Amino acid sequence: MTLDINWRRWRLVAFGGFIVSAILFVAIFANVVAPYSPYDLDVANMLAPPSGAHLLGTDELGRDVLSRVIYAARISMMVAVLASMVGLIFGTIIGSVAAYFGGWVDMVLMRFMEVLFSFPAILLAVVLMAALGTSVVNSMIAIGIIFIPGFARLARAAAIDVLRKQYVESARAVGMSNTRILVREILPNIFAPLLVEAAVAFSYAVLLESALSFLGLGAQPPEPSWGNMLNVGRGFMANAAWLSLAPGMAIFLTVLGFNTLGDGLRDAFDPHLRD
Amino acid sequence: MQDIRKHAQGAAGPTLSIRNLTVSFAGRRQLVQAVKNVSLDIWPGEIVGIIGESGSGKTMTALSAIRLLPHKAQVEGTIHLGERDVLSYTEKQMRALRGDRIAMIPQDAMQSLNPSMRIGRQVGEPIELHRKDSASRIKTRVRELLASVKIGDTDQRMQEYPHQFSGGMQQRAMIAMGLALDPELIIADEPTTALDVTVQAEVLRLLREIRDNTGTSIAFITHELGIVAELCDWVYVMNKGEVVEQGCVDQIFNDPQADYTRMLLDATPSIHGPRDEVPNV
Amino acid sequence: MLKVIFWRLIAFAFTLLVASAILFVTINVVPGSAAKAALGIDATPQALARFNAQNGLDQPLIIQYTAWLGQVLQGDFGHSFQNSVAVGPEVLRRIPVTLELAVLAFIVANLIAIPLGTLAAMRHQRGLDRGVTGFATILGAVPNFWLATLLVMVFTLKWRLLPASGFTPFSEDPIMNLKQMIMPALSLGIISSALLIRIMRASMIEVLSADYVRTAYAKGASEKIAVLRHSMRNALTPYVNVAAVEFGFLFGSVVIIEDIFLLPGIGSFVLVGIINRDYPVLLAAALTITVVVLIVNLIVDLLVSMLDPRSTAKH
What we know:
The structure holds 3 protein chains of 3 kinds.
Chain A: H1 3-28, H2 30-33, H3 65-101, H4 103-118, H5 121-132, H6 136-163, H7 166-173, H8 178-186, H9 191-214, H10 226-234, H11 242-269
Helix pairs in contact in A: 1-3, 1-11, 3-4, 3-6, 3-9, 3-11, 4-6, 5-6, 6-9, 7-8, 9-10, 9-11, 10-11
Chain B: H1 2-9, E1 16-26, E2 31-42, E3 47-51, H2 58-66, E4 74-81, E5 84-85, H3 91-97, E6 102-105, H4 109-112, H5 119-130, H6 135-148, H7 154-158, H8 167-179, E7 185-189, H9 197-214, E8 217-222, H10 225-231, E9 234-239, E10 242-248, H11 249-254, H12 259-267
Parallel strand pairs in B: 3-8, 3-9, 6-7, 7-8
Antiparallel strand pairs in B: 1-2, 1-4, 4-5, 9-10
Chain C: H1 2-28, H2 33-39, H3 45-54, H4 61-73, H5 87-122, H6 127-139, H7 144-158, H8 174-208, H9 211-218, H10 223-252, H11 254-260, H12 266-275, H13 279-306, H14 309-312
């Protein structure tokens, strides 16, 4: 309502944006930023507490924890980006097809989406991983599938809105084909709300990916991921707490960054939601 | 002018006396004054109309008396309810006054009744909050109150919820609630705006009866000149936070002094002067 | 009303059918792996074929599904590939564990969310409100399995107050049972409260600005009475809808927490099924969780349409 509150909002967006860009930077330039290789064993230096040489200590095989956390950011970001893309692309297609054709196509597609939506996310992810087999790529697919119904709903609502507008009717009138109308006229116009949803999906993907690899269903050792590092850390909680603290903190900051950024973006696109 | 009224009322002092009241809100850059240097009096047994368009500060002025303004409001001036210096009161002292010595009848009765509480409990709540009466005594009083605002079948009605009441009955229930403890002053904030014309007339007649029977003072806030003409003894005309004119109803209608009052009268062509009686419906 | 219930039930049955089909097809879509898992990598092709034939795994999926569904509808969840134990009774044994965990976590979440959300709403846009909102934002970013780890570090390793894991039935030793349940319930409940705090706050802010709350103040009510007597019930009505859905969600997200704290519930049964490639186990466990979640959602749906203030108020 007042300037003061807007400013507060922007501070949050800036905060989220800062964390997100920092993590993306670290993920992209992991090989430059990380002080050590995430795989190099150092048997003489197992479970060393944080020190000048190893800022976050070393793990049970003497690997540098900081470097592993940094490389794990890569996997986490990759899964988050690609899973959101899978959800975004398939969801948009399904949603806009349902909206465009309406009738029984709409009915069948959206009923199916609703059923998919009603599964608890983590359960569906786990079952999908069981079917697909454990790997980073598969966790990406599994998480992406979970996102499809959400995007489909949003795309359908947005597409129905767009379809009411003049330019789609005029496209029909000049005899454009269905596919052409979908791709040329509808998709570009429903992208903004979908991008906001993608930002939110991102942070959820980070959580789900870490959950899957925590259960041993995602990234497999020795590949570092925040989830599997936390899982290993559980075995050394008593004498090497840093193994549990560092990756947990990484997940926390990443999710926090994306959530604040997503909230801020949502407000920017939809001023009605502001306090 | 004040003197004429004082003699006319022949009372010891006004029920409500507001002096130099200014209500302001901190805006982005500067203070926005919603009420500017307003002074007004309401004498015992008097029905005083405060008339103005929305945004004229009439509701803010009235809410100041019961101290229910938004937290951010800054209030200057003095407000006396009888001998009590209301603005110097603590929140706890104010609570003891609200619903007991000053009551409020709001604009929208349906929104102002708690949807999940029985009417009987809501009407009796001022008594419950201010007196240590037994439940059965409160119930007896609620029955009387509902009967006095002409709600029949009281035992049944007390058990009902607001949505089971018609708009007119909801407003009468609100009035009953206001009367619960024989307040010195009732602030009625456009209580008939949400009602249709016939129901509106009933409610106005009821308010006048109440004044005649109990001697309660009523501050009647409205934007409708017609109602003022029917109901009020004395009128304050407010515009942009200021009192632009005051006088008895005759004077306001027949010999308006302020340009703004004339404008209001011109905008309401059907009003030609006060009527002596509220028509029977 | 009856018509509404009838159609909701039809939709529910349909959802259940599709959901079970999705689970069945997903789990059985990779052929042959179950036999390998059950018989070991050294199993001969003949043995594998015999296993597949015995368990009907060589049939087309649609036939396998209808056969399985027919059995499930008669209460028969089949037998474990691993040890031939009947799966149904095992599921029944595990449900109470998960139910206890979910209920306790739900209590924790509400005990945090209702007071904090209310306080934040009462101090809308002031320090306390910003503090509570910030707290909810932070909680929303903490993975529950990380919180579980942190709790174990503090309560078990540092203060030695609670056992790190394990399960004792409530009927055997209630104190021990609760001690073992505290940390799992806290890990799930605290994180769940993040969403519920926001919902409660928003709902309460709306109610507190209602005219009838001003009426309460005008009658001389204290803030305590205005909030507790006049606002709480009205604010809880929309909150309860979301909270009930959240309960279903809690029940669905027990997989990790049960694994961490070694609780023998449905969630850990899912993992048993996955790790052993024991399809009947996995299917039964996943289906049970899904059915419970769907039933909770159905009940919420029906309650919402029945608890509409205009119809409840009537009696």
